[in-house]
Amino acid sequence: MPSQIRKDDRDTAAKMQLFRARFSGLQDVYGTYDPASGRAWQVKKPVTDEVLLKHLTGRQPYGVYLLTGDRTRSVVADFDHADPTAPLEFVSAAKHYGLSAYIEISKSKGFHVWGFADEDGVDAAKARAVFLHITEEIDHPETEIFPKQDAIDPGSGSWGNFIYAPLFGGLVPQGRTVFVDVEASLRPYPNQWDFLDSVELVPETLFDEIIEINDIAVGIHPTSKVQVSLGVFQSPVMLPPCARRMLEEGVTENQRVACFRLAVHLRKVGLPYDLAEATLLEWSRKNRPTDGKGIITPTEVRSQTAGAYLKEYRGCGCEEPVVQQFCEPSCPISGRKLATKEKSA
Ligand code: SF4
Predict the structure, then answer these.
(1) Global pTM?
(2) CATH classification at residue 118
(3) Is the CB of 323 under 6 A from ligand 1?
């Protein structure tokens, strides 16, 4: 399969232009990862041609922050499973609405389904709402949608979430990070540049039509509430400070314990299991282990989350060293603990 990918006659400048046209977002920050360890991080530097060339030639992966304000030039449904049935159903359902969507075999085991807009982009909230609607139609509402937020405030210091761009040179020869033809048994397009040049761009008016015909609510999808800066947990009554800080900042050690404790908190505030799992998978990417261990894997996150949802665990884990690092004296539980200690002293 990989050997079917052909070289292209375009010069480097033309390829850069085409690549930028399809996979553009914020220009002063990008994401990357170490293919050997899987560790991912953010790079606060301009997205130069050199950055893109390193990606295309397999030297360093490039992750694009798609959101620019409230606009995006691409929208992506991220299917985690190796079974292509769901992404194929997505493409078919999108086609029913006249919306062209394209399947990329992702870097690990799943698939990304991309929709592309022109250089002005489209309203991200509308694009997300339509993609989320389609995932619900095909009974896969757990699917992550990129961008994960409807908008970012440029002054907030938040950039949203990055997604790895296709055509990473280190994986293309293995038939990964390439777009595949749904009409040809998911074989990679032999010329990926011709393919990128030929994609149908989705106008915002089409998203408007789909939203109106299906009476889709824009910007209030329950999943987006979890994905937008963990907004549902803003009330300290719902989550204790330690949990909020761990979720927002990630941890540097004892990730499995932290994951379990966070899952217990999420269950106690009533978050459904699938949303807790999605939240913690997202959280795991923020972790920066300094204890010599790799980032907790998706399988481990699922295992810890499942364990926490098995029983009605009530404890907050205040005694755990990894939790204590994030403890704040303002927590009402901290006050109660102190009072109990004084009483028993
Ligand atoms: S007292 Fe316990 S629950 Fe409250 S912030 Fe500290 S560790 Fe968390």
Answers:
(1) 0.64
(2) 3.90.920.20
(3) yes
